[in-house]
Amino acid sequence: MTRKNNNHQPQPRLITLPTSFADGFISDLAELNNRFAESGKVFELYGSFQHGSFHSARPAKYLPLISRDKFKKHVQQALDKHIRFNYLLNAPSYANFEYTHEGRRELEELLHFLCDCGVASITVTAPYLVDIIKNRFPELEVVVSTIGYVGAQRGITQFEEIGASRIVLDVEVNRDFRFLRHVVPKTDVELEIVVNPVCLYQCHFKFNHYCTAAFGGHIHKGGCGHPYNQYYLNWCYLEKLKTPGEFMRSPWVRPEDLHLYENFGLHHFKIAGRGLTGEELLSRARFYLQGEFKGNLLALLGWPHWLQFRKTEEGGVLEPLDIFLDNEKLSGFLDFFHDKEPDCRMGCGGCGHCDKWAAKHIRTNDPQLLKGYIATMQANIQKLVRSVPTEDETLKMQERWNNAAVSQDLSL
Fold first, then answer.
1. Is residue 5 pLDDT above 90, yes or no?
2. Above pLDDT 70, what percent of the chain?
3. What fold does the segment set 13-406 form as a domain?
4. At what angle do helices 206-215 and 231-242 cross, to 10 degrees?
5. Where are the domains of the chain?
6. 3 pLDDT exceeds 50?
7. What local confidence, expressed as pLDDT, does residue 1 receive?
8. What is the pTM of this model?
9. I need a surface site. Which of 40, 262, 345, 380 has the fewest CB within 10 A?
10. How far apart are CA 200 and CA 246, in angstroms?
11. Phi, psi for residue 236 in degrees, rounded to 5
């Protein structure tokens, strides 16, 4: 394991980026790295196969469908450009398959294949998999997923002791500068943060949401993932639309604010966005490498998910709702957390910081349309809770899911 440099000398900004697996993506990324060579680089790509017994935490229908040959070629292309590859085995559960004879044999075969491809590291959530990989495949570095919810010194120590080389911290500590200032300089493993999370702050529904999403990539006799409805996503964005301050409380980090973390030795930054096009991913990487973005921050974060809930109970379709948060007007917003170190876990109380910034800077194209989305999403949640799907509806849902996954085949 490479020990972290804690001498606070200037270090390059190291970005971890999803791959689109598309032809030409690696060469375009290499050009981007050359452009910002003096200040930072995308040093690692990450991704996975679309589905499997040992799958990732993203639903199959949103991920590219690739062959093993294409995967191996893609990893080699990245290595040729001095870019590492990280494979995701970050589902929160594999239904105890890893404890069986068949499961262990299948896991071993997959890990042997990844080593043969030149994969440098594996991101996992389950501690058992960390220990297995470090004992059976010591040439692989193990990265702990943000879904491992490491947000305390004890968690860092536990994963380090069983062989983790890097830990992607729980997004809930992104703005806990008191904690970060304490652990970053004193920890031998590398620590990393996700810069563009879209979750509600301190949302205790997200663990189940991740479980639901992950089983959307679990292969079974009926198809390539277990379908689910959008209860959690609907609920999340309904909360944001009802209370605009939630947009500000969500623990994102602007490109302009990365220096606040680099000042105390944190240099690893992860960009989320698997399933996006190569162009979108490269654009996000460019903004974070250059430390500047002009425009709607919500667009950079990839947040207009409320547009999935436009269909009304009456069968109509709402017009698109635009919500705008001008990134250039947000200078100083994160400084409050950096300088004052509020304990946000105790609730907002009389603070009002996020709500004040939301009232001042969040704009929508039509306040009445906003009310329409809120009413529609409230009705949709009630329908999802009260309605029991028929057997035929379940079969059709699985069929639509399988067709959506097949449509992501990059060989077509």
1. no
2. 97
3. TIM Barrel (3.20.20)
4. 140
5. 13-406
6. no
7. 41
8. 0.95
9. 345
10. 7
11. -60, -50
